[in-house]
Amino acid sequence: MSSEQTTTNKIADPFAPMVTKLRTTIGIVGSEKGGLGKTIAGLTIAEQLTAANHPFFLIDADASTPNVGLTYRKDLYQGFRQEAGLKDVKLIPSIYDAPDGDRNAVATLTEQIVFSGNANDYFKADRIFDLARTQDVLIVLPSQVAAYLNRWIDQNDVVGMLADPDNTIDIVYYFITNGTPESLDLFIESVERFNGKIPHVLVKNLGAPTNIRWDRGFDPDGRVQAVLDKYGFQSIFFPEMIVAPEDKNKILSEYIPFGAAIDSEWIPFSSKRRLAKWLREATQAFASTGLIPYHPKYMPEAVVINRDEAAATQVEAVKVTEAAKTAKAEAGKAAKVAKAEAPKDPDPAN
User: Which of 140, 228, 232, 293 lies at a 20 to 30 A Cα distance from 76?
Assistant: First the structure.
């Protein structure tokens, strides 16, 4: 999730316009076990990308209930739910159909991409790479599809693609865990399966059901930290959403974007405050990796200061450059005038 001249997938300025980009990122949100918070994590990333006006294509691969898709790409995913298909849904044109190849155009799908044992689903999933050539892609996985996802990755030689110096697509896997040994074993297995060639971020979900004490007892033998250190991967804490159950249920069951819920009049003041606090902490956690832009309302003060200082430095650099150009031009003019006004020697022999 990167800008035009960037060689990594880190964002220097989340407010910079991203129209044409040399590099894009496929972000995968998943974990093999159910109930660990993949949906909440996916909703959070979709919210902050949307708030930052960052172009991305959303793939919600949950065939039964694509909660993230129904929240942030409602028309498209409602179409997938309808028996009539997508004929009554107004689709946004694909970049391939856009006039003059407009890279601002948002691509779309006519069939939902899922990961299953069906051979046709693997070919449908290949569309992800076409989408990623024009903009970032966020994939939210259901549980128990790791075998199918890994097979698709193998079939497309993704590890080889990432090693290709001409490749412009990055991949990062946000692996959600509740801190149990079983969940952590699955994380290590996921990392080691590809010898650390596919970057992972371990997302320690404080809101997932568990009896794990994160301040002690987590990773007692240091195996997880050893894997993170071995490959230089990151881990973050994802905060628990503590909002009145009836308000949280309304947001999730009616597919209301978090930002829209905070700005609405129906939500009680206390729940609004709690939701805003959680969203600030949750989006800052993901943005701290440098892989996702900060939510513009919840940028840490240090980031705002650094951003403003960088902008001021750039302005000063432009001023200095322009002043140097002006001085050089003035010096050239003065030299021409001096040469034209210099007395000429009447004797050619001299």
Answer: 293
